[in-house]
Structure to design on (306 residues):
DNA sequence: CCGGTTTGGTTGAGCGTTCAACTAAACCGC
DNA sequence: GCGGTTTAGTTGAACGCTCAACCAAACCGG
């Protein structure tokens, strides 16, 4: 059967391209800043953040992947690098022998603490300083709706 | 001098993480769909789109990079691949002997035409179907503001 | 015009991500 | 408790991106 494509009208077109351009520019900028100032990509920063917030600064690999919005494979490679940098340690799970626990080292915590102020400043400058309080609220609602929709289906 | 970090309050924190999660999930999903159904990453799709919209389906490399939101280096590598696939041809610039013109081949146009319906459907399903018309409008304004702010400074 | 600077574009190395294949352990129904 | 199925995690190859170095042509001030 012939399924008609629901093409985008010109308003939608414009919205989609604007979103594409803006989110790419924002992420590229923040990623580049983080790489330059802290020597780590944003994805690694986020792994460290999630670990730092976990009880005892430890998380099971799958939970960490979930929290950091990463695939298992990606996390596996990333933790290998972070471990080589001395920022994360791998430990065995006490009861599930398949499990691995990623644990943030003191050096990892220090690296995060050094990177955080500059990065947060970047987020503020490039995102929040540009938007009105109402827009910030709108962006939150839109984002939460999208995530719900994407992970729900 | 000691510069105080302007940390994010909990509302901002929530907004930032929601945006991060949503935009990453959206892009990952669309990229994966495009790779699966059309055998090309989203960045390559966008190059083909911009070429297809240009007069005579030709653009100078720098203009194409600008239009596709890509670095020169990235575009150079990408066009090399697209040329190997037979989707794009490189031609010499008539007056500026440094210049290169990227030209969309018929095969490239056909590949784009085959990929477009599925991708557009994905954009509609994952983005527009989830948002109210008002939210679409908000997202456009927010995105345009952000882009202006990012490229202006 | 001549030499320095800017612009256009490419190149290769290094890195991070993806995908598919794989191992090992836990779970589950009978 | 045995055999099939999930679940947890790793691995290596292929690929795309970034960064810095680079070449060549155009531009520009004196």
């Amino acid at each position: 059967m012939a399924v008609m494509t629901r093409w985008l009208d010109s308003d939608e077109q414009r919205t989609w391209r604007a979103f594409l351009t803006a989110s790419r520019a924002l992420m590229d900028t923040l990623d580049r800043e983080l790489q330059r100032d802290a020597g780590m990509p944003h994805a690694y920063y986020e792994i460290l953040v999630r670990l730092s917030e976990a009880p005892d600064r430890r998380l099971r690999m799958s939970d960490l992947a979930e929290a950091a919005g990463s695939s298992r494979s990606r996390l596996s490679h990333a933790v290998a690098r972070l471990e080589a940098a001395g920022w994360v340690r791998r430990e065995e799970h006490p009861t599930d022998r398949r499990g691995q626990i990623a644990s943030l080292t003191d050096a990892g915590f220090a690296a995060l603490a050094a990177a955080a102020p500059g990065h947060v400043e970047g987020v503020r400058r490039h995102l929040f300083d540009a938007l009105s309080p109402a827009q910030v609220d709108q962006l939150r609602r839109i984002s939460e709706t999208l995530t719900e929709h994407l992970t729900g289906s």
Observations:
- Chain B is about 65% helix and 10% strand.
- Chain B touches chain A through 51 residues (CB under 8 Å).
